[in-house]
Design brief:
The protein is mainly alpha-helical. The chain contains 6 helices and 3 strands, in the order H-H-H-H-H-E-E-E-H. It has helices at residues 2-13, 16-24, 28-32, 36-52, 57-80, 100-122, and strands at 86-87, 89-92, 96-97. It has a two-stranded antiparallel sheet with strand order 1-3.
Length: 123
C-alpha cells in the first residue's frame, strides 16, 4: 500500500493543476470543492509515508478506507453514467481512460484497508 500511494502521488504532483482539473470531473468531493483536487495528492503522499513508517496503523487504515471509499463512489458514478473521461489515477502524465480497472484498483485498496483494520483490531 505504501508503494501504491507514493508512486501514484508522485505522478499526480508532476502536474498538480492538470490533476485537479481532471479529478474534479468525476470525484464527488472534488466536484463540490475544487481545492480537494490539490489536497488529494498530498493525502496520498501522507498515507504512503504513514504506511512505510508504520505510523499510527489504525488511523492510517481508517483514513485510507474513507478516502478510497469516497473515491470509489465517484468512479462508480462515472462508469455507471458511461462517461468517457480520463482517469486521473496516475496524474495526467498518462492518458488513461476510466475503466473497470480504476474501479478494481479503488475497491482493492478499500478491501486491503478493511482487512488490515480487522487484523489490527482482532490480533
Amino acid at each position: 500500500m505504501a508503494g501504491f500511494f507514493l508512486v501514484f502521488s508522485f505522478f499526480k504532483l508532476l502536474n498538480l493543476r492538470a490533476f485537479a482539473d481532471a479529478y474534479a470531473g468525476y470525484d464527488v468531493v472534488a466536484a463540490k470543492w475544487y481545492g480537494y483536487g490539490y489536497v488529494y495528492p498530498f493525502i496520498e503522499l501522507g498515507l504512503g509515508v504513514a504506511y512505510l513508517g508504520h505510523f499510527a496503523p489504525l488511523a492510517t487504515n481508517v483514513v485510507t478506507l474513507v478516502v478510497m471509499g469516497v473515491s470509489t463512489v465517484g468512479v462508480v458514478k462515472a462508469l455507471a453514467a458511461r462517461r468517457k473521461i480520463r482517469c486521473a489515477c496516475l496524474g495526467t502524465v498518462f492518458n488513461l481512460p476510466m475503466s473497470a480497472v480504476t474501479l478494481v484498483e479503488d475497491v482493492l485498496m478499500v478491501g486491503m484497508a478493511v482487512a488490515m483494520l480487522f487484523w489490527l483490531l482482532y490480533n
